[in-house]
Every structure is written in structure tokens, then in C-alpha cells.
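Two records follow; treat each independently.
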Amino acid sequence: MNIIVERFNKIKSNIELLRPIKTVKIIAVSKTFSLSHIQPLIDHGHLHYGENKVQEAKSKWSEIKKEKKNVNLHMIGKLQNNKVKSALEIFDYIHSLDNQKLADTLSKNQININKKLKYFIQVNVGGELQKSGIPISDLDAFYNYCVKEKKLDVIGLMAIPPNDLNSKKYFKSLNELNNSLALNELSMGMSSDYLDAISCDATFVRIGSSIFGLRS
């Protein structure tokens, strides 16, 4: 068996011990990896992949998505306003909705191309100045703006916790915020902490190096 598929299956079985796999979706973070490197997992039938650059995603995935209609592509990086139109054409999920101007641009362009994506609001759970995300104090107002005024399909929250070896505390906090908005999906957890995230009700985990190996 291919090493990438082997690693993927190991992660899948780790998740199954905690939660039924159908309630947790693994986003295989394929950013920077070539298509030939990712192909074994595509051939294995996995459907969810994460990219953080619009141009890279388009060049890598455009043909595959024509062939395999059920492959889902997740934008997990910061999305610039000038890349929105291209992002809407290739992605199915955006995990980094984090400001009003972006919400406005997404809403307008969605209507123009007649395609509805699913969105996660990125929350700055650690209040870190260098990190993107809506401050917790602004979350309710921003959620209402996106959903009620801009008619965006917000399905959950997303966060990247501070790198202080205390991820679980932030995962619990994000889960409580998600529940307070009665949202069904929750995007959190990466290679190093996905089991902690799942124990706090994550439904999407973003795993790259543990599947594809270290990035060069």
C-alpha cells in the first residue's frame, strides 16, 4: 500500500476510536505538494483537500474537479479581496471569512457567478495581534451581518489556536462559541493536535504533514 494512503488510514482509525468517522471530515492539506504526490489519496477515493493559495489551487485542481465532481476543495489560507472571484470558481468551502469587506465581496461575487459556497468564520481565539480572525467580542454581530444581511451560508467557526501547548483550552472555547450560535460544523485541529480538537467536537480537521510528509 502507498505510504500516503497508509498514513491516512492510520489517522482515520485514530479518529474512529474517538468519534464515528462519518461525523469528522479529514481535510488533507495538499498545499505546496505536487499533484503526483497527492494522486494516491485521490485514487484511494478521499474527497476533501485544503489549499491556501488561489492560483496554486486552480492550476492543480481544475482538471480533477471536472473529472471528479464530488471532490471538495477547502480554502484554508487568508483570502484577499482581489482573489475572491477566482476563489469562488475553484473552492467549495472557505475557512477564513474574517472581515466585513470580504463578506461583502464574497456575497456580491457569489450572486454574479450563481454559486453558493459554505463558510467558516475565522475567530482569533487567542487574541493574537499577528493572527487573522474576528475578535470574540465582535463575533455575534459579524455572524448576523454575514448570514442575515449578506446571505452567506455560514456553517461553523474556525480557529488556529496560539502555539502555547494549550490547544485544548482554545478548542473548548471555540466549541462553546459555535454552540452559542447553534452551528453544526467546527473546523479546528491539525497534525499535532487533531485528537484534542475532535474530543472538543471538531467536525473538520486540517491534516497535512502527517499524511503527505514534511514540506520542503
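The next record belongs to a different protein.
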Amino acid sequence: MLPAFSIGNNSHAASKLFPATDLINFSIVFVLGFLSRTKQLAHKLLMLLAGILILDPAFARMISTIGAPFPFVPLLDSVFLAY
């Protein structure tokens, strides 16, 4: 039997939700960016947002490696979005 998978001390079911929402959000923003290729600024901003959204798994691994609590992941996302 496989060990229970957990992200940030969440339940197994909640931990499955995070990767699914990451993929859905990334896919929506990426498709919107792809469809707005003729609008230069909108395309650039949507593709930048898609790139930031796909960084969540890397942020989560980095946060868990340094031993910081899980809520730092959305905080790190917010820093990238604000910049």
C-alpha cells in the first residue's frame, strides 16, 4: 500500500485538489493568452501569469525544503504577481 500523500498537513483529498486546480488555472490562462496573440499587451500579461501559475509546485517544494509552513506558498505567489 502506498503512503498517504499530503501537501502542507492537509488531508489526502485536499492535497489532490491543489495540483488539479493548478493545472486548470494554468490551462485557462494559457489558452486565453494563446487566443489573444493579436493583442500584444494582453498576450504578454496572460503568458506571464501562466508562467507564474505553473511555478506553484516548485514553490511548494522550495518552501518544504527550507521547513517553512505551507501558507508561504500563496505568499510567494503574491510577491511574484505584485512584482
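Discussion point: Residues 12-82 form one domain. How would you locate this feature using only the C-alpha cell line?
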